[in-house]
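Help! Submission page says 'invalid entity' but I think these are all valid:
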Amino acid sequence: GNSVTQMEGPVTLSEEAFLTINCTYTATGYPSLFWYVQYPGEGLQLLLKATKADDKGSNKGFEATYRKETTSFHLEKGSVQVSDSAVYFCALSDLDNDMRFGAGTRLTVKP
Amino acid sequence: EAQVTQNPRYLITVTGKKLTVTCSQNMNHEYMSWYRQDPGLGLRQIYYSMNVEVTDKGDVPEGYKVSRKEKRNFPLILESPSPNQTSLYFCASSLSSAGGTNQPQHFGDGTRLSIL
């Protein structure tokens, strides 16, 4: 079946540091890939998505590229801010709406 | 404003006392789903619904029931709650995957259940 594996946290960075959160997936067919962000006390919000190989999703300075050859969708940001502190979830969805989430990575950015 | 609304946000109750968590969306989405979030396990799907009167089991359906009598509502029912159902629950909705496009899901703010 489909599955998502993302790097374990927590991740602690200083403001303006470079961020990478690794995500790899296992899937049959051609899933869409997503990153969701969860701020304290809130539900998940879509951060970015990519629907086919080599697509790059981007939003709010975050980027991730759909790499079919390495089955990866790593999240990156060049310069993090304190306001980026949250839990980040990698997810995939196939055409049957079967959505799978990674375990989540907690990011803390210190001033 | 497009949203998914869950109620209650917090509930503490006792083993065996039936409870219902409501979920409503105002986006005319076909697809709705319930997840539970537990530390280190991410989100696990409990039940989902592709449309009115169509529901199916997710990965962890034991101890839960759902219904989809109307498009906008998708309540989660715990007939006889037990302590292992203490968790954070999320309802989500999306458009269907018609046309071959995988749609992102919109989430409610969550319901924290504590079963004593």
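Support: the input was valid. A stray whitespace character was the problem, and the output above is from the cleaned input. The longest strand of chain A covers residues 86-93.
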